Amino acid sequence: MPQEIELKLAVPDDALAPLAAWLDANGAPQGEATLLNVYLDTPQRDLAQARAALRLRRKGAQWLQTLKTAGSSQGGLATRHEWETEIAGEAIELQTFPAEAQTVLAPLIGRLAPVFRTDFVRRTWLVTQDGARIEAALDTGTIAAPASAAQEPIQELELEWLDGDAAHAADALRAFAARLATVAALAPSDLSKAARGYRLAGIAESKAS
Protein backbone atom coordinates (compact mmCIF):
# COMPACT_ATOMS: atom_id res chain seq x y z
CA MET A 1 0.00 0.00 0.00
CA PRO A 2 1.51 3.38 -1.00
CA GLN A 3 2.50 5.44 2.02
CA GLU A 4 3.21 9.16 2.25
CA ILE A 5 5.62 10.42 4.92
CA GLU A 6 5.99 14.18 5.10
CA LEU A 7 6.77 17.04 7.43
CA LYS A 8 4.74 20.23 7.03
CA LEU A 9 6.10 23.61 8.15
CA ALA A 10 4.28 26.94 8.25
CA VAL A 11 6.30 29.73 6.58
CA PRO A 12 5.98 33.36 7.77
CA ASP A 13 6.04 36.20 5.22
CA ASP A 14 9.59 37.31 5.94
CA ALA A 15 10.91 33.74 5.57
CA LEU A 16 9.78 33.13 1.97
CA ALA A 17 12.70 34.81 0.18
CA PRO A 18 15.57 33.56 2.41
CA LEU A 19 14.12 30.04 2.47
CA ALA A 20 13.87 29.85 -1.34
CA ALA A 21 17.37 31.27 -1.71
CA TRP A 22 18.82 28.70 0.68
CA LEU A 23 17.06 25.84 -1.12
CA ASP A 24 18.32 27.15 -4.47
CA ALA A 25 21.86 27.03 -3.11
CA ASN A 26 21.64 23.71 -1.25
CA GLY A 27 19.19 21.66 -3.31
CA ALA A 28 18.38 20.81 -6.91
CA PRO A 29 15.62 23.17 -8.15
CA GLN A 30 12.82 21.32 -9.98
CA GLY A 31 10.88 24.34 -11.17
CA GLU A 32 7.53 25.92 -10.44
CA ALA A 33 3.95 24.82 -11.19
CA THR A 34 0.44 26.15 -10.61
CA LEU A 35 -1.77 23.50 -8.98
CA LEU A 36 -5.56 23.91 -9.09
CA ASN A 37 -7.38 21.53 -6.75
CA VAL A 38 -10.96 20.69 -5.84
CA TYR A 39 -11.83 18.39 -2.92
CA LEU A 40 -14.98 16.27 -3.03
CA ASP A 41 -17.14 14.61 -0.40
CA THR A 42 -20.73 13.58 0.20
CA PRO A 43 -23.27 15.96 1.79
CA GLN A 44 -22.94 13.82 4.93
CA ARG A 45 -19.13 14.22 4.84
CA ASP A 46 -18.48 10.46 4.79
CA LEU A 47 -14.86 10.89 3.72
CA ALA A 48 -14.11 13.53 6.34
CA GLN A 49 -15.61 11.34 9.06
CA ALA A 50 -13.34 8.52 7.90
CA ARG A 51 -10.36 10.92 7.99
CA ALA A 52 -9.94 10.58 4.22
CA ALA A 53 -9.63 13.18 1.46
CA LEU A 54 -10.46 12.95 -2.25
CA ARG A 55 -8.91 15.48 -4.62
CA LEU A 56 -8.98 16.36 -8.30
CA ARG A 57 -5.89 18.30 -9.39
CA ARG A 58 -5.07 20.17 -12.58
CA LYS A 59 -1.39 20.72 -13.32
CA GLY A 60 -1.02 22.35 -16.72
CA ALA A 61 -2.89 20.08 -19.13
CA GLN A 62 -2.68 17.08 -16.79
CA TRP A 63 -5.47 15.92 -14.46
CA LEU A 64 -4.85 13.72 -11.41
CA GLN A 65 -7.16 12.12 -8.87
CA THR A 66 -5.85 11.40 -5.37
CA LEU A 67 -7.29 9.59 -2.37
CA LYS A 68 -5.59 9.91 1.00
CA THR A 69 -6.81 7.84 3.93
CA ALA A 70 -6.43 8.00 7.69
CA GLY A 71 -2.96 8.37 9.08
CA SER A 72 -1.27 10.12 11.96
CA SER A 73 0.17 13.60 12.37
CA GLN A 74 2.28 14.89 15.24
CA GLY A 75 4.64 17.85 15.36
CA GLY A 76 4.01 18.47 11.67
CA LEU A 77 5.10 14.93 10.70
CA ALA A 78 2.35 13.03 8.88
CA THR A 79 2.15 9.40 7.74
CA ARG A 80 -0.84 8.37 5.64
CA HIS A 81 -1.86 6.09 2.77
CA GLU A 82 -2.17 7.67 -0.67
CA TRP A 83 -3.29 6.58 -4.14
CA GLU A 84 -2.92 8.84 -7.18
CA THR A 85 -3.74 8.19 -10.84
CA GLU A 86 -3.87 10.26 -14.02
CA ILE A 87 -7.35 10.89 -15.48
CA ALA A 88 -8.84 12.47 -18.59
CA GLY A 89 -10.52 15.52 -17.01
CA GLU A 90 -12.31 17.03 -14.03
CA ALA A 91 -14.26 13.93 -13.01
CA ILE A 92 -13.53 10.95 -10.79
CA GLU A 93 -12.63 7.77 -12.72
CA LEU A 94 -13.24 5.08 -10.13
CA GLN A 95 -11.95 2.24 -12.31
CA THR A 96 -8.47 3.74 -12.60
CA PHE A 97 -7.91 3.65 -8.83
CA PRO A 98 -6.35 0.51 -7.28
CA ALA A 99 -8.78 -1.97 -5.68
CA GLU A 100 -8.16 -0.70 -2.14
CA ALA A 101 -9.14 2.85 -3.09
CA GLN A 102 -12.14 1.64 -5.10
CA THR A 103 -13.43 -0.17 -2.02
CA VAL A 104 -13.45 3.11 -0.09
CA LEU A 105 -15.08 5.18 -2.84
CA ALA A 106 -17.53 2.81 -4.56
CA PRO A 107 -20.38 3.24 -2.00
CA LEU A 108 -20.06 7.05 -2.23
CA ILE A 109 -19.46 7.67 -5.91
CA GLY A 110 -22.98 8.86 -6.79
CA ARG A 111 -23.09 11.41 -3.96
CA LEU A 112 -19.73 13.15 -4.33
CA ALA A 113 -19.66 16.91 -4.90
CA PRO A 114 -17.10 19.75 -4.52
CA VAL A 115 -16.62 21.06 -0.97
CA PHE A 116 -13.66 23.45 -1.18
CA ARG A 117 -10.68 24.45 -3.35
CA THR A 118 -6.96 24.83 -2.73
CA ASP A 119 -5.13 26.70 -5.49
CA PHE A 120 -1.44 27.50 -5.15
CA VAL A 121 1.92 27.89 -6.81
CA ARG A 122 4.45 25.19 -5.87
CA ARG A 123 8.22 25.52 -6.12
CA THR A 124 10.11 22.27 -5.59
CA TRP A 125 13.65 21.16 -4.86
CA LEU A 126 15.27 17.74 -4.38
CA VAL A 127 17.53 17.53 -1.34
CA THR A 128 19.35 14.79 0.56
CA GLN A 129 19.69 14.17 4.28
CA ASP A 130 21.38 11.22 5.98
CA GLY A 131 21.04 9.04 2.88
CA ALA A 132 17.40 9.95 2.30
CA ARG A 133 16.12 11.73 -0.80
CA ILE A 134 13.56 14.39 0.08
CA GLU A 135 11.31 16.68 -1.97
CA ALA A 136 10.97 20.19 -0.54
CA ALA A 137 7.82 21.90 -1.86
CA LEU A 138 7.12 25.57 -1.10
CA ASP A 139 3.40 26.33 -1.58
CA THR A 140 1.81 29.80 -1.70
CA GLY A 141 -1.85 30.38 -2.54
CA THR A 142 -5.36 30.18 -1.06
CA ILE A 143 -7.98 27.82 0.33
CA ALA A 144 -11.54 28.81 -0.62
CA ALA A 145 -15.01 27.48 0.26
CA PRO A 146 -17.52 27.92 -2.61
CA ALA A 147 -20.39 28.40 -0.17
CA SER A 148 -19.04 31.84 0.75
CA ALA A 149 -16.28 34.30 -0.01
CA ALA A 150 -14.24 32.85 2.89
CA GLN A 151 -10.57 32.29 2.14
CA GLU A 152 -7.39 31.39 4.00
CA PRO A 153 -3.82 31.81 2.77
CA ILE A 154 -1.53 28.87 2.01
CA GLN A 155 2.09 29.53 2.89
CA GLU A 156 3.90 26.33 3.82
CA LEU A 157 6.84 24.07 3.11
CA GLU A 158 6.25 20.35 2.73
CA LEU A 159 9.20 17.99 3.13
CA GLU A 160 8.29 14.59 1.67
CA TRP A 161 10.45 11.49 2.01
CA LEU A 162 10.97 9.93 -1.43
CA ASP A 163 13.41 7.08 -0.86
CA GLY A 164 16.14 5.79 1.39
CA ASP A 165 15.84 3.85 4.64
CA ALA A 166 12.12 3.97 5.44
CA ALA A 167 12.79 3.13 9.09
CA HIS A 168 14.65 6.42 9.44
CA ALA A 169 12.48 8.57 7.17
CA ALA A 170 11.04 10.61 10.04
CA ASP A 171 14.50 11.21 11.51
CA ALA A 172 15.82 12.41 8.14
CA LEU A 173 12.90 14.81 7.68
CA ARG A 174 13.35 16.25 11.17
CA ALA A 175 17.10 16.58 10.67
CA PHE A 176 16.60 18.52 7.46
CA ALA A 177 13.98 20.73 9.13
CA ALA A 178 16.54 21.48 11.84
CA ARG A 179 18.94 22.73 9.16
CA LEU A 180 16.20 24.96 7.76
CA ALA A 181 15.56 26.37 11.25
CA THR A 182 18.91 28.15 11.01
CA VAL A 183 17.63 29.98 7.92
CA ALA A 184 14.09 30.96 8.95
CA ALA A 185 11.60 30.61 11.79
CA LEU A 186 9.44 27.72 10.56
CA ALA A 187 6.70 26.23 12.74
CA PRO A 188 5.50 22.60 12.47
CA SER A 189 1.89 22.33 11.26
CA ASP A 190 -0.35 19.31 11.88
CA LEU A 191 -3.24 20.62 9.76
CA SER A 192 -3.25 19.43 6.14
CA LYS A 193 -4.71 21.59 3.38
CA ALA A 194 -7.70 19.24 3.37
CA ALA A 195 -8.28 19.64 7.11
CA ARG A 196 -8.09 23.42 6.78
CA GLY A 197 -10.46 23.32 3.81
CA TYR A 198 -13.06 21.27 5.68
CA ARG A 199 -12.82 23.66 8.61
CA LEU A 200 -13.32 26.67 6.32
CA ALA A 201 -16.22 24.98 4.51
CA GLY A 202 -17.87 24.16 7.83
CA ILE A 203 -17.67 27.80 8.92
CA ALA A 204 -19.08 28.96 5.57
CA GLU A 205 -21.94 26.45 5.69
CA SER A 206 -22.86 27.34 9.27
CA LYS A 207 -23.08 31.02 8.31
CA ALA A 208 -25.20 30.21 5.26
CA SER A 209 -27.69 28.12 7.22
From TrEMBL:
InterPro entries: CYTH-like_dom_sf, CYTH_domain, YgiF. Residues 2-204 form the CYTH domain. Pfam families: CYTH. GO terms for molecular function: inorganic triphosphate phosphatase activity; metal ion binding. It comes from the Bacteria. CDD domains: CYTH-like_Pase_CHAD. This is CYTH domain-containing protein. It comes from Cupriavidus necator (strain ATCC 17699 / DSM 428 / KCTC 22496 / NCIMB 10442 / H16 / Stanier 337). The lineage of its organism: Bacteria, Pseudomonadati, Pseudomonadota, Betaproteobacteria, Burkholderiales.
